[in-house]
Design goal:
Distance between the termini: 47 Å
Number of strands: 33
Oligomer: single chain
Largest sheet: 9 strands, mixed
Helix content: 10-25%
Length: about 425
């Protein structure tokens, strides 16, 4: 019988609606990051760097690109005869057919998969955070404490506590209370959504709560384990960890990569980030081009100027174009004499000549002010922007747009332009 000490279950089914048009056609964990990676590469790389060779990836929303990216796990050395990586979408059963309705419901629906490996411990991960963590060190901590459940937690400022599940622990780090997104927090230790369970305890909780609608770890499983006498500990983590679930945090995390001394280092030899890479030629940087403090992906052709930006693979930047403080994803084309300021341009977008983005005053977005903020311009994948238009701040554009969509050649700050065939 197969016996694995610990397997990982990676939750990658989320839509990521706070990323707006970036996730219209792709799950949040498959969104590009750092020029050549996708967000899911970080927890997957953490797994293989931590010696975990069995990972179930639970997908649901727009899974095609995620499935294609993961494949059989070759880039992460997870193409194994026993274990390796397995993509686990919802499937039809003989008694019912249902979508994953919550984080823990997704795990419950894959109990058979977990039992195949008869693990002692199960590591639960989220597929949409950027960080490096050695899960083996967390497992050693779990064993040393004799814990049933260990929750990775990190200190946050008291102002931020209302965004997180908060754990309250004693001097020995044993957890004695929880608060889910509290108005008045008793502690500043925020749950990172990373859990190690002793498998027997996890299975008991899942089976006991199986009929709970929207079964969730933070709301149901963790409180159940606590009220049933499980030994629960907080594992305090003080490294870099970023929830890139909003456009502003996603943009900031990318911009941090090009700092003189980046807070998050993609270049460490001992903790590599692995990804599925296309076979591409090297970049071409023309004689008149200027590049400062930027990441430039393979296969790019750069004829313009780029400052403090992250440019994905296969991007073309025309002559006379100036790009500042922006993220341009793979295979996008930026024409000549453009001015691109503080913009996120998704994959395979085409920006024609003389386009200016990020102009004018900062006005809240009229349709989704909580999504399109921070003065950013967000342009969806496969979007076409016609010649000679100006685009304001806190704007979103998706689809094949034409000159007639821009009154007097402008899209004012705070406007959203979604063309037919695309819908939020």
């Amino acid at each position: 019988m197969i016996k694995k000490e610990m397997i990982a279950m990676l939750l990658a089914g989320g839509q990521g609606s706070r990323l707006g048009i970036l996730t219209l056609k792709v799950a949040k964990p498959a969104v590009a990051f750092g020029g050549k990676y996708r967000i899911i590469d970080f927890p997957l790389s953490n797994c293989i760097n931590s010696g975990i060779d069995t990972v179930g990836v639970l997908t649901q929303y727009q899974p095609l690109r995620l499935n294609t990216h993961i494949g059989i796990g070759i880039p992460w050395d997870l193409d194994r005869n026993i274990g390796g990586v397995t993509v686990l979408p919802p499937y039809e059963k003989n008694t019912s057919s249902e979508w994953y309705t919550g984080t823990a419901n997704a795990i419950y629906q894959n109990l058979d998969y977990m039992e195949t490996y008869n693990p002692e411990y199960v590591l639960i991960l989220s597929g949409d955070h950027v960080y490096k963590m050695d899960y083996e060190v967390m497992l050693d901590y779990h064993k040393d404490k004799g814990a049933d459940v260990t929750i990775a937690a990190m200190p946050v400022s008291m102002e931020e506590t209302k965004r997180f599940g908060i754990v309250i622990a004693d001097n020995n780090n044993e957890i004695n209370d929880f608060q889910e997104k509290p108005e008045e927090a008793k502690s500043n230790l925020a749950s990172m959504g990373i859990y190690i369970f002793t498998f027997d305890k996890l299975k008991e909780a899942l089976l006991s709560l199986a009929k709970q609608p929207g079964l969730d770890f933070g709301k149901h499983i963790i409180p159940y384990c606590y009220s049933n006498g499980c030994k629960m500990y907080a594992y305090e983590y003080n490294g870099y960890w970023k929830d890139v679930g909003t456009l502003s945090s996603y943009w900031q995390a990318n911009m941090e990569l090009v700092d003189i001394i980046p807070e998050f280092n993609l270049y460490e030899e001992y903790w590599k980030i692995y990804t599925k890479s296309d076979t591409l030629p090297p970049q071409y940087i023309a004689g008149e081009a200027k590049i400062e403090k930027s990441i430039i992906g393979e296969g790019c052709n750069i004829y313009g100027e780029i400052y403090n930006s992250v440019i994905g693979c296969g991007v073309i930047v025309g002559k006379g174009t100036v790009i500042r403080d922006s993220i341009i994803m793979k295979d996008s084309q930026i024409g000549e004499n453009c001015s691109i300021q503080k913009s996120i341009i998704a994959e395979r977008a085409v920006i024609h000549d003389y386009v200016r983005t990020g102009v004018g005053q900062e006005i809240p977005n009229k349709t989704d002010p909580h999504i399109y903020d921070f003065g950013l311009v967000t342009i969806g994948e496969n979007t076409v922007i016609p010649l000679n238009v100006s685009i304001g701040k806190n704007t979103a554009i998706s689809g094949f747009t034409e000159a007639s969509d821009y009154p007097d050649g402008n899209l004012e700050s705070g406007e959203t332009l979604i063309k037919a065939g695309d819908a939020i």
